[in-house]
Amino acid sequence: MLEFALKRAAWASFVMLAVITIVFMLVSQIGDPCAARLGANARPEQIAACHEQYGFDQPLTAQYGAYLGLSSCVRKSSPNYDGGEGHCGILQGDLGESMRMEQDVVEVILTRLPRSMLLGAMAMGFEVLLGVFIGIIAATRRNTWFDTGVMATAFVGISAPTFLSGLLFLYFFAFRLGWFPVGGYGNTPLEHIYSAILPAFTLAIIGAATYARIMRSEMVETLRADYVRTAKAKGLGPVAVIMKHGARNALLPIVTLMGLQLAILVSGAIITESIFAWPGVGRLAIESIHNLDAPIIMGVVIMVSFTVQFGNFLADVAVGALDPRVRVDQE
Amino acid sequence: MGSRIGAFFFSDPRALRRFRKNRGATAGLALVVLVTLTAVVGPLLAPHSPEEQNLEELLHDNGLPIAPGENPAHPLGADTLGRDELSRLLHGGAVSMQVALFATALAVFIGLSIGIISGYFGGAVDMFAMRGVDILLSLPFLLIVIAIQRVVDRPELWTLFLLLGLLSWTTLARVTRAKTMQVRELEYVQAARALGMSRRRILLRHVLPNVMGPAIVIGTTLVAQMIIVESAMSFLGFGVQPPNASWGSMLREGQQYLSHAPRLVLYPGLLIMATVFGFNLLGEGLRDALDPKD
User: Fold this and answer.
1) Going from the N-terminus, what domains does chain B have, and what CATH number goes with each?
2) Is B203:B197 a contact under the CB 8 Å cutoff?
């Protein structure tokens, strides 16, 4: 088991290295961040000074080594820069400094992360509550007009792009009815949660529709099982049968799916965050691509990929621990 | 649907019958044909140029565009720059569909090739390809596409579909690979190998027809995904660039006037949704028809 976990971890580290390399090469082609930051009227000396400060005057290999934290630091603004052996890279937990905000990248991301997580957590809550509830009711009323109608709606819901539902919610619930703020994040914790309702709901539609469809088909299967018939036969009420014996077992695939969705919690929802001016990680990423803020772009992509890798790693090891066949398969 | 076309997509006549009986699938097919047709002939049907601005006639004094029905020559009204909305929708649809269809075609071609080669030959080729898929899948797709599009000096339509196609073949390759590994062990394929049939012939005559089913299903849903990705990129300002306009970039423009003229968001948005819905419906119908076990 330990061997399996170690192999899996080695592979995850290799994928991370590949991701970092791809992103590094991509971002190094994206244009001159110094020119973007200083504007069209910048004098050549200013741009050269900026290049020197961030180490862009160094060869790409030196920049790459320094970014990984394997070779000496090239970024003069870093506290670890000493012109010689000091390191300031990923291995040291340093993702560099934002060109626009003149702030540590890790710090910037850590400020934005909790906001995206709040949005993601609320969205997941809506998804599961709505999806499971609708799925159970549809399954218990199978082949009635209610079932058909709700499942057709769910199928339409899966096709509704976030930008359409988001803009429509914004129009009706914020502009027309005035129940929610038009966008933004608010100032107090209560305002944060209140402002998150519309974007979280937008984010939840597709997920809720997916959950409802899965929950319904699982419930239909489960309700046919022998132990459900036994439970009915021993005189259990319909609600107890559905909740205790049916829903509990049908929930399993939902839990698996929720695990896979964890990445959304961290990566933020790019579209939803833009529509509702929600200052999370997704918006940070878009802003930084607009501004050619290279260190932030790299930081966000690396953080998101790392979370995905870490999540997959945990899932694989957990499944490997439970199911020996998986371990053999991998070898 | 002519039986010839049917026979091309369904090697099994029972699958064709199942597909025809499925009302949802037929509705999806109708929607898809309608949208594709609009994409092809739509620009010819457009009553005006999508770029021509007619500020005098099509904007009110307060700067707001005329609403549908106010001017019979412009049945859907105008957008905020005084351009005919109907013409823009017809042209925008053509752009959206072009990008989605070309990107999907490219992705299906790459995915099928890599999947078949990887699954049939196995070994180092397989390992290399599948590790590549793992790496691609661990990149945040939308962010990477947007970042690459930002790198491209002068983004044009073809760079967009090239980019989308080159990055979205992963799922298809995985599924094709798994299916190919099954087919490789079938008796008649082993017999073909034993009889000395060339690899090329085995791959094209025996393996390809067997993996086409799942590829068609995934390809169909991939079109829907490509439409959403293109719209999302254009909505964020990184996709289709002016003077070209897609439904996604129309949404972007409409968003700024959401409180005054929500229809500028509603029209392109509903068209995107209907298209995606059609392709999803068709994909689901094809899946049911080709794989009755589910």
Assistant:
1) 12-47+79-290 (1.10.3720.10)
2) no
Please state, in angstroms and as integers, the Cα–Cα distance from residue B288 to each residue in A215, A316, B19, following that order. Answer: 19, 30, 8
Cα dihedral B44, B46, B52, B56 in deg (nearest 10) = 150
What is the distance between the alpha carbons of residues A148 and A132, in angstroms, rounded to a whole number?
16
Given a contact cutoff of 8 angstroms between Cβ atoms, the answer to whether B169 and B179 are in contact is no
Enumerate the residues of chain A whose CB falls inside 8 A of the CB of residue B224. 159
What value of ipTM does the predicted structure carry?
Answer: 0.80
Contact criterion met (CB < 8 Å) for B150 and A289: yes
- Whether omega for the bond prior to residue B243 falls within 30 degrees of 0, making it cis, is yes
Tell me the residues of chain A between 272 and 331 that have a Cβ less than 8 Å away from chain B: 274-275, 285-286, 289-290, 292, 297, 300-301, 304-305, 308-309, 312
Are B236 and A270 in contact by the 8 Å Cβ rule? The answer is yes
Q: Rounded to 5, what percent of chain A is helix, strand, coil?
A: 75, 0, 25
**Partners of residue B25 in chain A, C-beta under 8 Å:** none
A169 neighbors A160 (Cβ within 8 angstroms):
no
Classify burial at A61, counting beta carbons within 10 Å of its beta carbon; exposed 0-12, middle 13-18, buried 19 or more.
exposed
Instruction: Please write the tens of the pLDDT for every residue from A33-57.
Output: 888 878 778 888 888 888 888 888 8
Contacts of B273 in chain A (CB under 8 A): 156, 159-161, 164
For B122-143, what is the mean pLDDT? 86
Q: State whether residue B78 is helix, strand or coil.
A: strand
Three-class secondary structure assignment of A50-105: HHHHHCCCCCHHHHHHHHHCCCCCCCCCCCCCCCCCCCCCHHHCCCCECCCCCCEH
Q: How many CB pairs under 8 A join A and B?
A: 110
Does A260 lie at the interface with B, CB-CB under 8 angstroms?
Answer: no
Query: What separation in angstroms does the CA of A185 have from each of A106, A176, A191, A260?
Result: 21, 20, 7, 27
Give Cα B197 distance to the centre of its chain: 36
Instruction: Give chain B positions within 8 Å (CB) of A264.
Output: none
The H or E element containing residue A276 is: none
Q: What is the pTM of this model?
A: 0.84
Q: Find, in chain B, the residue whose alpha carbon is nearest to that of A289.
A: B147
Nearest to A163 among B134, B235, B259 (CB): B235
Nearest to A163 among B146, B237, B251 (CB): B251
Q: List, for residues A188-246, the tens digit of each pLDDT value.
A: 888 888 888 899 988 888 888 888 888 888 888 877 778 878 888 888 777 777 777 77
Distance in Å, alpha carbon of A252 to nearest chain B alpha carbon: 19
* B192-218 per-position pLDDT tens digit: 888 888 888 888 888 888 888 888 889
**Residue with token string 């929708």:** B89
The burial of A1, by beta-carbon neighbours within 10 Å (0-12 exposed, 13-18 middle, 19 or more buried), is given as exposed
Contacts of A267 in chain B (CB under 8 A): 140, 143
